[in-house]
Amino acid sequence: MSAMRMLEPGPWIADPLAPYEQVTRTRADGRPWVMAHMVGGLDGSAAIGGRVGALSTAPDAELFRLMRGLADVVLVGAETARAENYGVVRLPPERAAARVAAGRTATPPLAVVSRSLDLDWSARAFADAPPGSRTLVITCAVADPVRLAEARQVADVVVAGADRVDPALALQQLGERGLRVVLCEGGPTWLGELAGAGLVDELCLTLSPLMGGDPLPVSIAPPGAPLAHFALRHVLRAGDTLFLRYERGPDVP
């Protein structure tokens, strides 16, 4: 039997973002670094009543807001954007000021992935976006031309793929815009597409002390996708909530 190690309580961390800020998020091949931030219950459920909010404890909600400050763009699937009533990214004033002082935008833009473009263009995600940081819409060439024209009125449109959104092409185009750190907030289908294509570099998974949610996992792999292996980098605890950070490890045949 393999040896195991008991995890003992460590020192208190005043700033929950500090351990995440110490990570160097660059790739040798120049592709944008993809970090995913998800929350799941003890039974693997990623939602309660179709929404994530009920799974999120107060410490998780705080870290969720702060984690966005590490990103150059926040990426989310259209279904999740609709279900969670997504708005533009907002950060505490001191975090936004620190980004500006470092030569970055005050907040990262939001990017919504949608093949059908079945989106409400008057929603907060588009209507509240600042002029210099419009929301991005990532779609594919078969998108309805009328909806595509509507999207271009309120967002910056990225066409990545012919009949579906190609994750690799989407990342390539984000990288060409200078967006080097991509934070994926789901949903499970889009995260599964990224993981299945071997494009998730880091997974920050909150384990919420709940059971009985929807039969919906954190990630849904597309048919035939290979396994993606990850290495545990750190574990944090706030009350009964665990915060696990993984990085992509070597694949095992």
Description:
There is one protein chain. The protein has 253 residues and is of the alpha/beta class. The protein has a single domain (29-248), classed as Dihydrofolate Reductase, subunit A (3-Layer(aba) Sandwich). It is built from eight helices and nine strands. It has a nine-stranded mixed beta sheet with strand order 5-4-3-2-6-1-7-9-8, sandwiched between helices. The two termini are 22 Å apart. The model has no long low-confidence stretch (mean pLDDT 94).
Which key features would you list for this structure?
253 residues, alpha/beta, Dihydrofolate Reductase, subunit A, nine-stranded mixed sheet
- Chain-averaged pLDDT: 94
Strand residues, percent = 15-25%
Question: What is the assigned CATH homologous superfamily?
Answer: Dihydrofolate Reductase, subunit A
Number of helices: 8
- Please bin the fraction of helical residues: 10-25%
CATH architecture classification: 3-Layer(aba) Sandwich
Which structural class best describes the helix and strand composition? Answer: alpha/beta
Number of E-state strands? 9
Shape: globular
Strand order of the largest sheet: 5-4-3-2-6-1-7-9-8
At the fold tier of CATH, the topology name is Dihydrofolate Reductase, subunit A
Q: Secondary-structure element sequence?
A: HEHEHHEHEHEHEHEEE
Query: Strand count, sense and closure of the main sheet?
Result: 9 strands, mixed
Using only C-alpha atoms, the radius of gyration works out to: 18 Å
